[in-house]
Amino acid sequence: MVATDRISPRQQAMYVSTDLDEALVAHVSENTGLRLVLLTGSAGGGKSALIRQLQSRLPQGTISRVVEDATHADSPSERQTERLAGVLAGFSNGVPPAGDLTVIAANTGLLLELHREFTERGQPALADVIAYALHVLGVPGKRSLTEARREELGAAVLVVDLDQRPTSGGEGRLLRRMLAGFHPDLPGGVLAGAARCGTCAVKAWCAPRTNAELLADPQIGAALDEAVEQIAMRRGRDVAPRQLWDGVSELALGGISAEGDPCNSVAGLAGEKDGAAVWQALLPNGVFGWAQGALAREIQALDPSFRASSETHTVIASAGILPAEDARMLEDLLGSADGEARQAVTTAASALAASSAGEGARGLVRAHWLMGRLPLGPVVPEEFKEAVSMQDDAREQVIQVVSDGLVQAFGQTAERRSYLPTESLGESRDARVLVQVDVDEHVEVLPQRAQHFNRQGSRVVGLRPLTARLKIGKSVIDLDLPLYRLLQMAAEGALPATVDIERFHALRYAAERLGRQQADNTDLPLLVTDDARGTAFVVTPRHRRGQEQLKIEKVA
Q: What percent of the chain has pLDDT over 70?
């Protein structure tokens, strides 16, 4: 359960406002017909924090009631069901009267259970409200809801799915604003001005403090934002706020334990004069050698020092030849901001100057990346980003890659024509029959369900799709970045490894289904293959003088 009135002043001060706050307040203020705001999303998505902001920014009395204790339950208790039935009672005969606005935070699992409970209790009008929410969220299932009722609820209910909120990919989004608040001297920031640092005698050994200064640097913020944006594209969903906080905290600590007082660990390094350990805990190293949380591990996997490029090679090849030059390079890159030295960088540079050959090579590459001097690594294909945003030229390019990849992975080509199987590829047989298909004519990029069914909620949350929704024949699948890259590889002739087969399952089914569908057209050529003999024949139907004939041509 969530209690928004039980937060500390520190938690309240750490809240990071984004464009979503403004958009939601504006929408509620401007839409007088609104009667219910339903906030959904995974745990850690910020539902409770958003409720607090909504309450504080709207005029007193705008919100009639708030239900927060449904947030972390997948199944409502008897008491919760009765309470929510009472809260939603105004929808029993249409919609509540003007001035009656309810805000509820609930996850999808709870909504599914509520729909079942209301249906079984004989409360169809309340079940309609939940059915409408599940409909706009794109949750599969058959739930009766008349068109008139759907239209009525569409004007009265706003569903905001916080899993769709962009948290990276721009200055106005959560990650960049969060990082800006990490500067230790910022009174309203994460460290609340770091009063303890004022009397600290070992700041030069404190990698966490310097890391916090580095995280607040706009240039470094842009580099990390790019990394998290790539991770979001790979996942097919944005990184949740709680994961961002956990990941950024790991970046700041740099491997120094958060158990107990980290200041004691820093004092220990100072006592041992261990400058090498300070270098290893600084931002260019830190999680790249020591990552615990999911986001930190995914950032680690993007390590730019392992990217094959001439820029990376130049830095690594020159490192260690003159250790003093390595130290100078580090200080030039990260050593100061606005004329003030970052003390732990100076300590790390001294350790580099005294180090063995090449010990700091990869850390120096990462320092170059953090300051925008080197690219991160494999970039997200521009056509994929544009296609998920429904840009026409990019969609055509993606359709071609998908079509070529499907044929190479599941079908065959012969005489410059494409063929797909007419039976299941899972069945073992020596001879196969495939049908000619112009695959690109049967592939379409569709708008995301949320963009179609939940336009208001999508606008408020600032939805930007991270996957493409494909229609292949009669099948609809989600195309994420890893799957698109596999199709690119397949189109170029590289078949997927066993570990990737599961990702291909939906595509294989779509290819088989399209092949069987096209096989119903008896005018299309067939490709008959005999794998045991390594032969293939194209069978082309002909109509001559009122008779049907078959032309059989050996092609392999």
A: 93
State the pLDDT at residue 3: 39
CA of 368: how far to CAs of 285, 311, 325, 363, 373, in Å? 12, 10, 15, 9, 5
Residue 34 lies in a domain: yes
For residue 30, give its domain range: 9-164
Helix (H, G, I), strand (E, B) or coil at 143: coil
Q: What is the mean pLDDT of residues 178-185?
A: 92
Q: pLDDT tens, 435-461?
A: 999 999 999 999 888 878 899 999 999
Rg from Cα positions in the chain: 29
Q: Do 483 and 405 form a contact (C-beta atoms < 8 A)? A: no
Asked whether 479 and 381 are in contact (CB, 8 A), the reply is no
The two most distant CA atoms of the chain are separated, in Å, by: 101
The single-letter code of the amino acid at 386 is E
Q: In what order do the strands lie in the sheet with 475-479?
A: 443-446, 468-472, 475-479
Same domain, 204 and 253: yes
d(CA 87, CA 532): 69
Shared domain for 186 and 247, answered yes or no, is yes
- Give the confidence band of 180 by pLDDT, cuts at 50, 70, 90: very high
* Closest by Cα among 72, 71, 37 to 54: 37
